[in-house]
Amino acid sequence: MPHALYVCLQDDDKIAAFSLDGDTGQLTPQAEFAVAGGPSVIAISPDRRVLYVGTRNSPAISSFRIDQSTGGLTPQGTVAQEHAPTFLAPTAPASICCAPITKAAARRSIRSGRTARSALLPSAGGRQRAAPTR
Amino acid sequence: MPHIARLNDNVLEPPKNNPGPNVILQFKFDPQTGDLTSNSPPRVEPAERVGPRHYCFHPSRDLVYFSNEQGCSVTAYRLDPATGALTAAQTISTLPDGYTERNTCSQIHLTPSGRFLYVGNRGHNSIAGFAVDPATGHLTPAGHVPTEAVPSAFCLDPEGHFVFAAGTASGRLASYRINRETGALTPLATSDVGQRPAAVLATRLGD
Predict the structure, then answer these.
(1) Which of A27, A128, B36, B185 could bridge to B176 as Cys pair (CB 3.0-4.6 Å)?
(2) Do the Cβ atoms of B21 and A86 come within 8 Å?
(3) Integer CA distances (angstroms), A116 to A78, A83, B41, in order
(4) Which domains are present in chain A?
């Protein structure tokens, strides 16, 4: 079973998917998936079944179901963000932490100890819940 | 016992005259609710303005390695497993001796074995490698390999045999094989991938 490799192409508004030969390191293009808003941040769930993508030009986080035989991506949902995400950290099965990018937001975070947070529930039939920014 | 989340809160490409906060914020994380609360102490502030940017956890030891964006270095922090607090232990340059041109560090990744560590150099346009002492986590340089222009993002394959580095400015993706004894990188191939490749991730498919 080959591995999959994904590249966020921020100025093309898409993700390029490759198959990756784990023995040789060779990449073979497989498919491209449109993601509006400048995909630029990527993370995967601990069970490797859901891909999270943050977009910077139009601040949001989207989730995609990963087809385990082809590596193909199926959109699950999108949660708008107040600030462009700069880093995603999946932690528990159903939560993801998002650090904002803007200097103002960073300063605000440091002053108050606040961090933007969203909870995506990809296992709930594609439904999702966005926790308010705290 | 709650899990502990640690976020590196920093700006992407700060202007030269305003490099942004020089701090790591420490939180406790409740896995049931997703709530974050400030840890004690709530922040770790490097003595010099190095600009902590990205980090990775050692796979088996209580160590976290941060890339320092402006400092062009890596800092190894001891992680107190009881409290989640970080304490700086070692800082080492990601640049060759004598290099003085502008450079900023980008991402940082460990091999799954924890034996080798890699950091992107934007400006020097290289991937810096380090060998990790299995007993102590201490870093020693393992060389540099030239890469595509502005390597903001790179990843390893799931087994830790290869490195894939994207050139944000070149629109190309470069592949390298990791020498299993030394950690040195050998170029394999480069290919066009598209405009502004900003993130790269490899994963194992199937169960």
Answers:
(1) B185
(2) no
(3) 15, 8, 20
(4) 3-118 (2.130.10.10)
Phi-psi region of B152 (alpha: psi -120 to 50; beta: other; left: phi over 0): alpha
Give Cβ neighbours of residue A30 (< 8 Å, ≥ 6 apart): A4, A17, A18, A19, A70, A71, A72
d(CA A97, CA A89): 5
* Alpha-helical runs (H) found in B67-138: none
Residue B63 bridge partners (DSSP)? B78
**pLDDT at residue B2, rounded to an integer:** 40
**How many helices (DSSP H) and strands (DSSP E) are in chain A?**
1, 10
pLDDT in tens, A43-86: 999 899 999 999 999 999 999 999 999 999 999 999 999 999 98
Whether A73 contacts A51, CB under 8 Å? yes
Quick check: A126 pLDDT over 60?
A: no
- Strand pairing category for B162-167 and B172-178: antiparallel
For A8, name the nearest residue in chain B, comparing CA atoms only: B199
What pLDDT is attached to residue B32? 80
* Nearest Cα to Cα of residue B43 among A109, A97, A84: A109
Q: Shortest CB distance from A9 goes to which of B162, B177, B196?
A: B196
Write down the ipTM of this complex.
0.90
Q: Looking at the partner chain, which of A4, A12, A110 has a beta carbon nearest the beta carbon of B194?
A: A12
* pLDDT tens-digit series, residues B126-161: 999 999 999 999 999 999 999 999 999 999 999 999
Least confident of A18-32, A90-104, A120-134: A120-134
CB contact, 8 Å: A49 with chain B?
A: no
Q: Please judge whether B3 and A39 are an interchain contact, meaning their C-beta atoms are less than 8 angstroms apart.
A: no
Tokens of residue A86, six digits: 């700069």
Domains, chain B, with CATH or none = 49-192 (2.130.10.10)
| Contact of A61 with A118, CB cutoff 8 Å | yes
* A22:B155 CB<8 A: no
